[in-house]
């Protein structure tokens, strides 16, 4: 089987109670954002249809949605070609994250109980232990848990919904950054600063540290994207 089709199939969850066209679109979207279909690759609708035994109609729908998101483009006489994530996309997503993460932390710190702060502290300690044990994949999950905990405690359901739209992008960027041992260590130290700022209910510190934390991550990711000649 074509390795690109295999990558999409791996992300194709047919157990979901959603229309096939939506499931297929989400599988393509996740596969492209995670970089499993490189920029410049052509997506052959007929080959996907024949191999996966799926009508071309939901595949066309998925491609239309991805064109609208600018993750793929229609090239005359060639077909659908993957664009993937650009450096411009990275800057845009991190600008959004700065605003949303700051707002979530500021809201959460006023609503969190002592028990909540103890739980957040335990998450950071767990992340440090996983880092020292070299369990990179588990550190990646721990960082997601840290962010999701703060969003959950902000009790802003619409904010959480907005962030869920960016989640696949965030996992992709986080995965790039956290693979670096130095970046992991720095990010853990920044988590402690965010935690202390929240516990002290210091709005200014929250904004400064959150922005600095995300700027460091963005700078690392831009260097990696440039190294891989992503523009």
From TrEMBL:
Task: Show the InterPro entries listed in the entry.
Answer: GntR_C, TF_FadR/GntR_C, Tscrpt_reg_HTH_GntR, WH-like_DNA-bd_sf, WH_DNA-bd_sf
All copies of domain HTH gntR-type, residue ranges: 18-85
SMART domains, per the entry: FCD, HTH_GNTR
GO function term, MF aspect, one? DNA-binding transcription factor activity
> Which SUPFAM superfamilies does the entry mention?
GntR ligand-binding domain-like, Winged helix' DNA-binding domain
Endoplasmic reticulum listed as a keyword:
no
Keyword set for this entry? DNA-binding, Transcription, Transcription regulation
- Full protein name: GntR family transcriptional regulator
UniProt source species = Enterococcus cecorum
């Amino acid at each position: 089987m074509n390795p690109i089709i295999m990558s999409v199939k791996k992300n194709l969850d047919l157990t979901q109670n959603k229309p096939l066209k939506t499931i297929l679109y989400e599988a393509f979207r996740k596969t492209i954002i995670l970089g499993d279909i490189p920029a410049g690759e052509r997506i052959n609708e007929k080959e996907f249809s024949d191999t996966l035994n799926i009508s071309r109609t939901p595949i066309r729908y998925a491609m239309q949605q991805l064109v609208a998101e600018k993750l793929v483009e229609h090239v005359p006489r060639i077909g659908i070609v993957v664009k993937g994530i650009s450096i411009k996309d990275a800057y845009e997503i991190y600008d959004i994250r700065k605003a949303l993460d700051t707002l979530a932390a500021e809201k959460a710190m006023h609503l969190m109980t002592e028990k909540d702060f103890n739980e957040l502290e335990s998450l950071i300690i767990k992340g440090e232990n996983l880092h020292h044990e070299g369990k990179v994949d588990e550190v990646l999950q721990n960082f997601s848990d840290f962010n999701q905990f703060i969003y959950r405690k902000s009790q802003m359901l619409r904010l959480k919904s907005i962030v869920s739209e960016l989640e696949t992008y965030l996992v992709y960027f986080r995965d790039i950054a956290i693979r670096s041992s130095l970046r992991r260590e720095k990010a853990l130290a920044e988590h402690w600063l965010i935690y202390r700022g929240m516990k002290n209910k210091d709005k200014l510190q929250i904004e400064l540290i959150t922005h600095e934390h995300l700027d460091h991550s963005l700078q690392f990711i831009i260097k990696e994207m440039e190294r891989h000649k992503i523009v």
